[in-house]
Amino acid sequence: MELSASTKVADLLTKYPFLKELLINFDPHFSALNNPVIMRTLGRIATMSKVSFMTGVSLEELFPFIAAEVKKKTGETLLVKLDAVAEQADESAQRLDALKGIIKDLHKGGDKQLLTERFNELIKDVAPWEIANMEQQLMAEGMPQEEIKRLCDVHVEVFKKSLDKKVVPGLPSGHPVHTFMLENRAAEDIMKEIEAACGIADNMKQLSALFERLSALDVHYVRKENQLFPILEAKGISGPSKVMWSLHDDIRAMLKDVKAKIRSGSVKEVDINALLHMINDMIYKEEHIFFPMALESLAEEDWGRVRDGEDEVGYAWVKPESNWQPSSYAMSGERMAENTGRLNLDTGLLTIEQINLILTNLPVDISFVNEQDEVVYYSQTPERIFPRSPGIIGRKVQNCHPPKSVDTVEKILEAFKAGTRDVADFWIQMKGRFLHIRYFAVRDKEGKYKGTLEVSQDVTEIRDLQGQKRLLDWN
Asked: Can you give the residue range of the structural domain that contains 217?
């Protein structure tokens, strides 16, 4: 058998199945080989060149190891073509540069038809992860996030014809991506009802009800932001997530605007069509670029972490069809042994259980960010004001806020660290409630900055209090 950069992983493992465990032991990045979802779908077409790129293990290091193990186990001598490795890597780099060139030319107003022809020739061997990687590289080279977002719609239109030829991988019921796709089908059904209702005069009541149902789409986006984005960021993939979160916010703002216009009777069909177009484009980007890229990038255990915590965020219109878990992963609650020891605090002794109960029963929501700007705790109160899920633990706090709010977050953290400020507070009105949000610099006895405490409270009833109350009135 010939071993080269273009050798398919599936072909190699079919002929030499013993290589699977050896590769996993050789480098932990190869644990994806244990992922049946990956092997049933992308594993069939993935080349050794792509595996090298995704794992960071060079083919110059990998091929001699494989050849030696095959020789030891079977006595066969593999024909190793290392001279093709550099050529394959160079072709991949050139293809990526060409993709980036197309996007930059679009940005400059280049002829879309000519650029489409260039792309159609190039796309033959391009995988979804390469498009996401291209976006990340453009941002790393200094192209503003807002420009990437603006270009996103344009390049998806250019790419759509070719991307339609790529098969969206099938997934087991209960897998996070399977659930996301079920929600997309439900959203499409509601949008079809909206389109039908638009053709009926004086139908504002029905439209209002349909858009209230469509508003559950926000849960779909919140789950992506809190569960899937953090796992991708941990793998060094942050660019596509940032662009997508910004697009989420655009859809949220437009949905809010359309609902307000429906209530006032001033909505126009062009407003509704623009919103539906944005939502449909997001579905397309998820299923043809973002989800395939995530499936190629995350191992089975990573998807277990995405799944762990999804129930806390909730679902839009549907629920997972089964309680899927990867074979190598157990839910965090089952992994963690109960700690019954007591902690000696400054003013008393409390068990872990008591501390947890106190924090989760406070009449406020709290989150704590350490001195490295990482979210290390949030209180799971019965009715949180703002959504949180286990996926944010260990995540940079800057990535837990919409892109438009990051500058404010950075300003607060800089002032706290410099010691020029100790408190920052805000108040907003949302869904008829008055919310008070405060940030406190946490310092040790020597005044050294140790982190930031966020406290959020619904103070609607508190603001209405008058006079005084000294007696219990439980009658």
From this structure: 176-313
Does residue 93 share a domain with residue 22?
no
Question: What is the total residue count of the chain?
Answer: 475
Please check whether residues 382 and 448 belong to one and the same domain.
Answer: yes
185 shares a domain with 112: no
Tell me, yes or no, whether 471 lies in a domain: no
| Number of structural domains the chain divides into | 4
Beta strand 2-3 with 433-443: parallel, antiparallel or unpaired?
Answer: unpaired
- Of 135, 163, 191, at which residue does a domain stop? 163
Q: Strands, DSSP E only, in 178-267?
A: none
Q: 46 with 304: CB under 8 angstroms?
A: no
**Phi and psi dihedrals of 402, rounded to 5?**
-55, 150
Using DSSP's 3-state secondary structure scheme, residue 448 falls into coil
Q: Do 200 and 290 lie in a common domain?
A: yes
Q: Tens digit of pLDDT per residue, the chain (475 long)? A: 788 877 888 888 889 989 888 888 887 667 667 665 555 545 555 677 767 655 667 777 888 889 899 999 998 888 887 654 455 555 656 766 776 777 777 777 777 677 767 766 665 555 555 666 666 676 777 777 666 666 565 556 655 555 555 444 456 888 999 899 999 999 999 999 999 888 665 678 889 999 999 999 999 999 999 999 999 888 888 777 888 898 999 999 999 999 999 999 888 889 999 999 999 989 988 887 788 888 878 888 889 889 988 998 999 999 998 888 776 544 443 333 333 457 778 778 888 889 999 999 999 999 999 999 999 999 988 878 888 888 889 999 998 888 888 999 999 999 999 999 999 999 999 889 999 999 999 999 899 999 999 999 999 999 999 999 988 888 7
